[in-house]
Design a protein that fits this description.
mainly beta; two-stranded antiparallel ribbon
């Protein structure tokens, strides 16, 4: 028994000497670098639909070119006024993103309540005729180019515009003649849009509409022709927009 115990003690001592030596011969432990933080990159690609609201002003310049069938040359200026008011409507569009650049197309339609008037400056009307404009609705059909800083997008837009108007002549508050007018023109605008949730964004936008001049033939309430005015129209609008987007995931980038 004594020989067994002495042998076991010797073996333990030998292992204690060998083990540190073996450990010293092992290579140093290597450490793996932790992965970098993941940054979320917002992708503006996809379809979107939204609502908008705001206000605007329509500049109207009236020039008489015909009175009761008699041409007026050169045209006689009846004066100008601003038709102002509110607007509300919606938009539908699609965007695709390439790098930081964003491209898109959009259609927008709004109901409007822009009203304004001025007393005609024609001496023949002796200050008795008031010309009134009401802009009831407008539509925009545009392309977009923008630049994105993650979830912030600045863009410019341009394309076609259409407005629906009612022009009225009044004397002492009574309608003496009127005509509806739908006209096409161009538009340019710019906006800043911020995404505040994965699929939601809010934008602040300004647009200018170039509608040019149209010849408007007025008729009396009974149906008889009264006059023709060449009416020039330019519209400025500002709006706040809220969009919901689907498609185009948020991309993770190291």
């Amino acid at each position: 028994m004594k020989k067994i115990l002495l042998g076991a003690a010797g073996l333990v001592a030998a292992l204690g000497v060998v083990a540190p030596a073996d450990a010293a011969d092992l290579p140093a432990r290597t450490y793996t670098k932790a992965p970098a933080m993941v940054a979320a990159i917002y992708d503006w690609s996809g379809f979107y639909i939204g609502i908008n609201g705001g206000g605007g002003s329509s500049r109207e310049s009236w020039n008489l070119t015909n009175l009761a069938g008699v041409p007026v040359a050169p045209a006689a200026g009846e004066g100008s006024h601003n038709a102002t008011g509110g607007l509300v409507g919606g938009q539908l569009g699609y965007r695709w993103q390439s790098g930081a650049w964003v491209f898109g197309v959009e259609v927008q339609g709004d109901w409007a309540d822009f009203k304004g008037s001025n007393v005609s400056q024609l001496p023949a009307f002796a200050g008795a005729v008031t010309n009134q404009t009401k802009l009831d609705a407008f539509g925009l059909f545009t392309g977009q180019v923008g630049y994105a800083w993650n979830n912030v997008l600045w863009y410019v837009k341009g394309g076609a515009a259409v407005t629906d108007n009612k022009f009225t002549g009044l004397t002492a508050g009574v309608v003496i003649d009127q005509e509806n007018d739908t006209r096409w023109g161009g538009t340019v605008g710019t906006g800043l849009e911020v995404s505040f949730a994965p699929n939601w964004s809010v934008a602040f936008e300004y647009d200018h509409l170039f509608l040019g001049s149209n010849s408007v033939n007025f008729t009396a309430p009974g149906g008889g022709f009264t006059r023709t005015d060449s009416i020039k129209q330019d519209v400025d609008i500002g709006s706040v927009r809220v969009n919901y987007r689907w498609g185009g995931p948020v991309i993770e980038k190291y």
